[in-house]
C-alpha cells in the first residue's frame, strides 16, 4: 500500500511517499518559500540505495499550487514514481495540536476538521497550515483516506500532576487549559529506537528534539510522563524564534508599561524571540558562523540555549527518578556537536559523560557519544516523523 505523508508548515511542505508495510521510502521532498517569490521544490527519488534529486525553482503562491506541483512530480512521465494519483491509498497528515480530543491517530472527517480548526488559537503557527494541507490533499488525492497524526497524542499519557496548571479549576474543566506537549511523533519514534538500542523495555529516557521548534520529553517504559511544552508550542526550551519559558509578568509589563497590544506581544514571543531575538539569526548554522567570528551575542545565545536544556535534564531526571539514556534528535540535535557538548556539560553528578571525539563524528544512523564509563548513554538518533506517521496510518487501517 502506498502512503503519502504530508508535514505542512506555514511556508513549507515536507513530504514522503512510502511503500508499506515494507517502510520503503519511494520519494521525498520539500517545498520551500511558499507565498514568497523564488520558491523551491527539492524532490528525491530513491532506487536501490541511490537517490536522484530534482530541483525546481518557480513561484508557488500557495499550498494548493505547491501540492499540485508535487503531484505533477509524482506522476511525471520521466521521473514519476506512480502512474496515477489514485494509486495513493492513504495520505497521512502531521497535525500539531489535537487537544484532549485526539489521543490516537484518526481518520479525517468533516467533524475532525472542525475540531482541528477550533484548535487554531492554541497553535497559531501550525494548525492553520496543517488544515490547509488537508484541504488541498482532499482535492488532489480524491480516492485516498486522509488520516491525521497529532503531535500531542504521545503526550496524552502524562499524569494530571504534570499537565495541570495551578489556575482555577474551571479553566481546565470548561476550556481545556492545560499543558499538552508537542513533537510527540518524534519523541515517540526516537524513544522507541532508544529502548530497542538499549534492549530495555522499561528504559527511562529523556528525548531532546531540537529543530526550529524545540522540546524535551521524559519517557518511562515507552510512555511520556512529562514534556517541556505547554498549552501551545511556545514554552520550555529556547527555540529558533520562540522564547521558551519566561515569567508571565513579562507579558503584563509589555502591555501595561510599554504599550504593546496582545497581538504584538504574541508576535514578539513567537516569531521575534529565541535565537533570532538574541542574535538576529534563527538558523543554528548562521549562529555558529557568528560564533566563529567572535560574536558575544552568539556565545551568550548558545550558552542560554544549552543551559535551558541542562536545567530540563535535571528536572526530568528527578521526574523519572533515574536515567538510562539521553537522546538528541532533529536538525540541531542531530547535526550540532557544540549544542550537544554544552547541553550535557557539568552533569557528571548525574553520571553523564561525553566522549568528545565520538561527538564530533558524522555518521548515519544511531550513534552513541557517551564516554565508556558514563552511567547514562548519550545517543544521537535521527528522527523520522514521516515514517512514524506512515506506520501509524498503516496500523490504523489494518
Ligand atoms: N548541519 C547543521 N548544523 C547545525 N544546525 C543545523 C544543521 N542542519 C540543520 N540545522 C538546524 O536545524 C534546524 C531545522 O531543523 P528541523 O528538524 O528540520 O526543523 P523543523 O522540522 O522544525 O523545520 C535549522 O533551523 C538549523 O538550525
Ligand atoms: C510543534 C512545533 O514546534 O513544531 P515545529 O518544530 O515543526 O515548528
Ligand atoms: Mg520538525
TrEMBL record:
Encoding gene, per UniProt annotation: ackA
GO BP field: acetate metabolic process; acetyl-CoA biosynthetic process
Record's protein name: Acetate kinase
Catalytic activity, reaction form: acetate + ATP = acetyl phosphate + ADP
Assembly mode: Homodimer.
Pathway entry: Metabolic intermediate biosynthesis; acetyl-CoA biosynthesis; acetyl-CoA from acetate: step 1/2
Site positions per UniProt: Transition state stabilizer: 183, 242
Stored Gene3D superfamilies: 3.30.420.40
InterPro entries for the chain: Ac/propionate_kinase, Aliphatic_acid_kin_short-chain, Aliphatic_acid_kinase_CS, ATPase_NBD
Family as reported in the entry's similarity comment: Belongs to the acetokinase family.
